[in-house]
What we know:
four-stranded antiparallel sheet; EC 3.1.6.1; ten-stranded mixed sheet
Amino acid sequence: MNRRSFLSSGCALMAGSMLLPERLLAKEAEKPNIVIVLADDLGWNDVSYHGSEIKTPNIDRIVKEGVELERFYVCPVCSPTRATLLSGRHPLRYGMQEGVCTPLTTHGLPPKEVTLAEMLGSVGYEHRACLGKWHLGLNSQKFDPISQGFNYFYGHYNGALDYFTHKRYGQLDWHRNREACVDGGYSTDLLGREAVSFIDKYSDDSPFLLYVAFNAPHGPMQAKRGDLEDYGFDHDKGIIKNSSKRRGKREMQPDYGDLGRGNTVRQTYSAMVAAMDEQIGNILNALDKNKISENTIVLFQSDNGGIANSGGSNKPLRGGKFTLWEGGVRVPAAIRWPKKLRSGVKQNAVTGAVDILPTVAEITGAKKPEAQLDGRSIWGILKGEEKSDPERKLYLGERSAVMQRWKINKGRLFDLTNDPYEKNNIADKRPDIVKKLNEFIEQVESKAGEKCNLGPEKTDDFAPPKDWNLGLLDK
């Protein structure tokens, strides 16, 4: 079934639901609201429930009141994880496994992919909002959230956005749906405020999907002065220096100025995480205030590990963003649903962003896309009715995969049960496991697809369209 057929069948189902008996309509209304909160470059050691000095009481609250996903895996960089989360498929199937959608790239999440938002739209989720960082295609309006199943968007298409001016490559990248939006303020606060407004507006019109993709604590390193002071900002000390990276004639990381920079990178980063955590608290409070917390699923996760040079920490895990070590692909994650899930549970089964779509499909009764999914429903695991599968294999990319006990990283084998920090390569001692994992990797990689490139080709002297209006690139 292609995307058009899938959506048409969904419309037919929605039309048919108008004729269902009241009893079935009432059951339809019992579907949970779904809130997905995504942090950007948040490291393993950047949440207080992992022992960090950074205070994250609201993220900790989701963990305390729900199920902590101790072995939750993602891709090592931004765009691939976002694509995986929304599609339930390995991004290598559509050419997005490596790299991100930068201002100079022409690829994105293929329009033919059936997204989580489209799937939920077919089973009565009338309100589907994407707030924050999209990062799944910058070269055509066919890549944007409105074209990918969301019916409301507030945020930005690019990564590395200025937190205060909301500009990237000199153009405003802040939108309400497809129109430029000049809202003054710190981007993290604006996204939290918009999320609360959405919840207030649709709390009596459930169910809804709310996807909040914060750009924090990704660079540029910019925090509010009050948050910096909470982490020891000293006005008499100097601030961190800005670093610019050039590609061709254009700055990929331009000079964002001095606004928002603290005494150290870690201090600034900590303040950025604190601001995000505060807004997560506001989202949770809005659910409480509107008395819909009980039947609202809240998923929190990071898109990849942190970057030490940008203030993040993945200790004691090895590596970080851009790598396939645990510190790059194993991230803080938890899910809360008071109506159905026990609180205070730590789940050690191997799970990942690729599992979210099939899990939501089982919970909501939605028909899964017929394209091959790489994730599986973890609903039984979340409820404690199923044990972890020791034979489950999860592809991580670049000749790497993980199981409950074993992990192979480009030919190097690690026993994570006895060596969780990947210090000892034992590939020569367990050739049977190496063979098993390599066969799995070859099977997955044999189905790699091509990138979906849309819009005009770009060069190093590319200038973005006015106010990052992607529609202008299609003309």
